[in-house]
Inverse folding.
């Protein structure tokens, strides 16, 4: 990565790629070492002369390649020499400064080898940046995520040959590695191997061909071996973007079809080891989850969807992912502080910094807010972190917001002024809802509690305790007498709103309950589980009436149709499903999304279902037929929420691209794009009269839009 005098970074290209394979090749003669793609091509004919990863041989003095004794320093220097030559060619001269990245656990002895190789390559004196520090510098300095002093970033680096996990803490003037650990036997190559193993299982009768592929002796067999593993890597990368990939098997001359589900089943044991390692590191380092500003996935293999899913499920923090995570460390090194030494490892880690509650970190963190970020018409002292929830009271006069700062807030919609600040939760507020009469507000939090608040006074009416792993979801019954909550402990609970006492504990789920919803008549409660099931419960008895099985990954949302006859569910498996509530049978499987379905909502007349997807689209479905009515495209990042206007003619969508959009339901066309937010939009809600739209954003604001006039007028509820 090369930065010009204007500070702009651009990748150097090697064989038309921004990535230079680190392998080196030594021929039988005494000529120079080959690097990159040249080395890989030469290895096809003479594999004994090839070393794929000299960095992993850092502790060896020499490497034997094709009967040639090559020092490790020479091997690393060959790669750096090529980098230096390309940098000089592009820049027109030697770079003013050079920063070299390295694993956080490298000793001064290893750094000495790297420094000698750099000097040999013509770089001269270099600075060193630990790879997780470079990643943290990219997180805060390049993509503008919030990493305040005293908070930590967990960097999960899944590269080609290893998995490294580190905790980086920001101090007042530096980034420091608090703890680091890793696995030398898990990386992208091991995941490639699962695809090769799967292909072998599908062509097991071709034993002779597989013998030649696994133990190549002739140049033709060696070329076939290289092509197989190259294509396996390509298939793995394709499966990070699509649900299937084809792999050609040389020598057998056949193509096998690999689905993402098949690949993830095979890869899961490897990835679960890395997630267990991550959880252990946090525990051993004494860093509580609440101190994390985020989880950042770097390294080429970290883009696999299962990586983020497993980490999110275990740590309850949504990782930050990028399209090209393999370039993060290189560019981050241009922004990170250089040093001449690094910690030798995570044992023992420094004492964890004191924790100050600012809410959970279950979503990627927001960019720093500056006065230039927004043009304020009305600035209200408000949330100090992301606003993730907005909901109107039934009469439309009050707006409730909640977010990562652990508070909920009430606002007078007519004036935009604060009515009350609801404090008491110690973690991120995950859900908020008004009672049907509008007199009570319920909140659920990752601090294991739900709370009831008097809307008129803003005072707590009851603290509902019992969940043991966070309260994720909350819903009032239509008569307002009962509250339902769902928690990470695998239970849903019913509460008497008048007394605040538990009415029933609903057990049967095997994982966290992500969503709860009452039927319109209040007799049935639907719950959604991380284990891929939904349940229907008899509210009067607290007993299960139906288990709805069909999703192959966690169920993120549930919604009843207005007539109560149909239930919609949204799944991580990329499908939404419609269920007949009376029989528990599947009415339709809605399969057009190609990634996680985040939200489902019925139109007021119940004829249309809207879904929001991580594939960047929202979709409208004909409930009667289960067919797609419209695909709403335009967002450039995933769609986080959908809401129908009260008359059902307009759909609002919230996008993590920083926009909200209004759509004409009849035509599926964009009616308006609301672009005033400066970071991702989490939630949208229409007022009961349909004239005002509320949006909540990672930029620390909630906004009220007049959707009844030409240009929206905006009140801003901003971070203080």
């Amino acid at each position: 990565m090369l930065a010009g005098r204007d500070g702009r970074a651009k990748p150097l290209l090697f064989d038309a790629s921004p990535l230079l394979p680190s392998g080196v090749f030594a021929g039988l003669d005494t000529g120079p070492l080959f690097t990159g793609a040249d080395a890989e091509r030469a290895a096809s004919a003479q594999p004994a002369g090839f070393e794929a990863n000299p960095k992993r041989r850092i502790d060896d003095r020499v490497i034997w390649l094709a009967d040639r004794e090559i020092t490790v320093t020479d091997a690393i220097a060959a790669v750096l020499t090529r980098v230096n030559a390309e940098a000089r060619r592009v820049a027109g001269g030697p770079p003013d400064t050079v920063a070299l990245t390295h694993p956080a656990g490298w000793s001064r002895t290893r750094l000495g080898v790297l420094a000698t190789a750099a000097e040999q390559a013509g770089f001269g004196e270099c600075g060193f940046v630990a790879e997780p520090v470079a990643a943290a510098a990219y997180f805060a300095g390049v993509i503008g995520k919030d990493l305040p002093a005293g908070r930590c970033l967990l960097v999960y680096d899944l590269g080609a040959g290893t998995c490294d996990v580190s905790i980086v803490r920001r101090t007042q003037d530096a980034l420091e590695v608090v703890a680091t650990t890793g696995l030398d036997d898990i990386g992208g190559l091991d995941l490639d191997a699962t695809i090769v193993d799967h292909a072998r299982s599908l062509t097991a009768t071709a034993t002779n061909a597989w013998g030649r592929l696994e133990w190549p002796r002739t140049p033709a067999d060696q070329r076939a071996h290289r092509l197989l593993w190259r294509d396996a890597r390509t298939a793995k990368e394709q499966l990070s973007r699509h649900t299937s990939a084809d792999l050609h098997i040389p020598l057998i001359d056949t193509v096998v079809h690999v689905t993402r589900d098949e690949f993830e089943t095979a890869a899961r044991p490897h990835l679960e080891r890395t997630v267990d390692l991550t959880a252990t590191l946090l525990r051993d380092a004494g860093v509580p989850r609440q101190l994390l500003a985020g989880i950042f996935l770097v390294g080429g293999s970290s883009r696999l969807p299962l990586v983020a899913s497993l980490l999110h499920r275990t740590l309850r923090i949504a990782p930050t992912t990028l399209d090209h995570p393999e370039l993060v460390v290189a560019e981050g090194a241009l922004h990170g502080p250089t040093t001449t030494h690094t910690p030798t490892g995570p044992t023992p880690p420094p004492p964890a910094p004191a924790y100050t509650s600012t809410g959970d970190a279950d979503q990627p963190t927001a960019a720093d807010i500056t006065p230039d970020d927004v043009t304020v018409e009305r600035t209200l002292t408000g949330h100090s972190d992301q606003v993730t929830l907005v909901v109107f009271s039934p009469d439309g006069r009050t707006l409730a917001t909640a977010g990562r700062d652990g508070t909920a807030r009430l606002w007078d919609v007519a004036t935009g002024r604060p009515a009350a600040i609801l404090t008491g939760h110690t973690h991120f507020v995950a859900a908020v809802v008004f009672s049907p009469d509008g007199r009570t507000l319920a909140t659920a939090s990752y601090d294991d509690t739900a709370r009831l608040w008097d809307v008129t006074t803003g005072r707590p009416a009851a603290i509902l305790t019992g969940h043991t792993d966070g309260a994720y979801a909350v819903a009032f019954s239509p008569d307002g007498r009962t509250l339902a909550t769902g928690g990470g402990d695998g239970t849903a609970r019913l509460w008497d709103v008048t007394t605040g006492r538990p009415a029933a504990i609903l057990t049967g789920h095997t994982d966290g309950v992500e969503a709860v919803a009452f039927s319109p008549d209040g007799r049935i409660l639907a719950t959604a589980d991380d284990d891929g099931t939904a349940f229907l419960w008899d509210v009067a008895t607290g007993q299960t009436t139906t288990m709805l099985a069909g999703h192959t990954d966690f169920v993120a949302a549930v919604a009843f149709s207005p007539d109560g006859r149909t239930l919609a569910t949204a799944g991580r498996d990329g499908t939404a499903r419609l269920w007949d509530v009376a029989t528990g049978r599947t009415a339709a499987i809605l399969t057009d999304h190609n990634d996680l379905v985040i939200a489902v909502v019925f139109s007021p007349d119940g004829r249309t279902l809207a879904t929001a997807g991580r594939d960047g689209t929202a979709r409208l479905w004909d409930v009667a037929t289960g067919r797609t009515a419209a695909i709403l495209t335009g967002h450039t990042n995933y769609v986080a929420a959908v809401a129908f206007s009260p008359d059902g003619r307009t759909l609002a969508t919230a996008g993590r691209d920083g926009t909200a959009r209004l759509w004409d339901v009849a035509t599926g066309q964009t009616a308006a794009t609301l672009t005033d937010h400066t970071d991702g939009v989490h939630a949208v809600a229409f007022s009961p009269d349909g004239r005002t739209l509320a949006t909540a954003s990672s930029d620390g604001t909630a906004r009220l839009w007049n959707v009844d006039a030409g240009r929206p007028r905006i009140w801003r509820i901003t971070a203080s």
In short: The two ends are 37 Å apart (CA to CA).
